[in-house]
Amino acid sequence: MQFARRIILQPCLILGLGLLTACAAIQTDGPARKPFKLESVIKSDIDTVVEINLEIVQDHLRRLMVKLYKRNPRELAKSRHKTIAENIDRLFARTDDWTFPELDGKTGIEALYLTFDDAYHGDRVFALMTGLTSMLMASYDYKTEFYLFDNLDAQKLY
């Protein structure tokens, strides 16, 4: 009787442990998981989705900036900051002020217009990305974290 129980329990135990370890699989694609924070308690699912969406769009803008600088190295040569990483850091490290002296304080659509202005002799890639990034952040009310009682303006997002 003991032997029969052992024969049945041992495979069941191994199968159960195998299933438990399969549930703890490491995520390999998609946005990286964030560690739990106490402030996550006052977030709705939509707030989390909005934050993830903003991170993804910013990541795409960073990649676009790298590609544009690689495609147009003469624009990088016009910048005071000589590496792509420096330009990316100084643009995406900001949270509320996207005015730069080389763009004469222009942001949003005005910075985009500089990109296509024949009279502008500065870094056109930086002007384009400043315009896009400042418009993106304006649509999210210059926030990167959202909580239960935060409201987003649908017209700005559109």
The geometry reads as elongated
Structural class: mainly alpha
Compressed to H and E, one letter per element, the order equals HHHHHHH
Work out the helicity level.
Answer: 55-70%
Number of helices: 7
Gyration radius (Cα, Å) is 24 Å
Largest sheet: none
Taking pLDDT < 50 over at least 5 consecutive residues as the criterion, the unreliable ranges are none
Could you report the average pLDDT, rounded to the nearest whole number?
83
Number of strands: 0
Strand content: under 5%
Overview of this structure, please?
- This protein is mainly alpha-helical.
- It has 7 helices and no strands.
- It has helices at residues 2-23, 45-71, 73-78, 84-92, 108-115, 124-139, 154-157.
- Helix 2 (45-71) runs antiparallel to helix 4 (84-92).
- The longest helix is centred in the middle third of the chain and has 27 residues, at 45-71.
- The mean pLDDT is 83.
Summarize the structure.
This protein is mainly α and 158 residues long.
Reconstruct the topology from this structure.
Blueprint (H helix, E strand, L loop, with lengths): L1 H22 L21 H27 L1 H6 L5 H9 L15 H8 L8 H16 L14 H4 L1
Helix pairs in contact: 2-4, 2-6, 5-6
Describe this protein with a few key phrases.
158 residues; 58% helix
